[in-house]
Amino acid sequence: MYKNNLLANSVRLALVSGAMTAAFTAPAVFAAEEDSVERIEVTGSRIKRTDMETSSPIHVMDAEQIKMSGFTNVEDILNQLPQLEAGENSFLSNGATGTSSLDLRGLGSNRTLVLINGRRMQAGSITSQDADINQIPAALIKRVEVMTGGAAAVYGADAVAGVVNFIMDKSFDGISINVGASGYQHDNDNGYIQGLMDEKGYDYPSGNTDIDGKTYNIDLTIGSEFSDGKGHAVAYAVWRRNDELLQGSRDYASCVLNAKQSECAGSSTTPLAHFDIYPVVNGNVDYDQNYWGYTDPNGNGFKPDDGYRYNYAPINHFMRPNERISFGSFINYEINDHARPYVELSFMQNRTAGQIAESGTFYDEEILMDYNNPLMTDLQKQQLQAEFNQTDADQFVAYIGKRNVEGGARANNLEHNSYRILTGIEGDINDNWTYDVSFNYSATSSSSVYINDLLSPKIAPRVGAVDTECVAEDGCLYYNVFEPGGVTAEQAEQLAGVGTQTGLVTQTIYNGYVTGDIGVTVPSASDAIAMVFGFERREQDYERISDTIYSEGQLLGQGGPNPSLFGEIDVNEVFTEVQIPVLDHLAFDLGARYSDYSTTGGDWTYKVGGDYTLADNYMFRASFNRAVRAPNVNELFGSPVIQLWDGSDGCTTDDKGNTKYTAAQCANTGVTASQYGNLNPNDAGQYNEFSGGSPDLEPEEAETLTLGLVANPIDNLSFSIDYFNIEMENVIDYIGAERILDICAVSGESDFCSNVNRSPSGSLWLGKSGYVTNIIGNVSSRTWEGVDASASYLFELGSGDLSFDLIGSYAMKKEIRPVVGKDEFNYDCAGTVNSDCFASPKWRHTLTAKYSADDWVLAAKWRYYGEIDYDGTADERLVEQGGIDAYNYFDLNGSYIVTDYMSVTAGVNNIFDKEPPMVGNTIASNANTVAGFYDTLGRFMHVSLNFKF
Question: How many whole angstroms separate alpha carbon 755 and alpha carbon 773?
Answer without folding.
Answer: 5
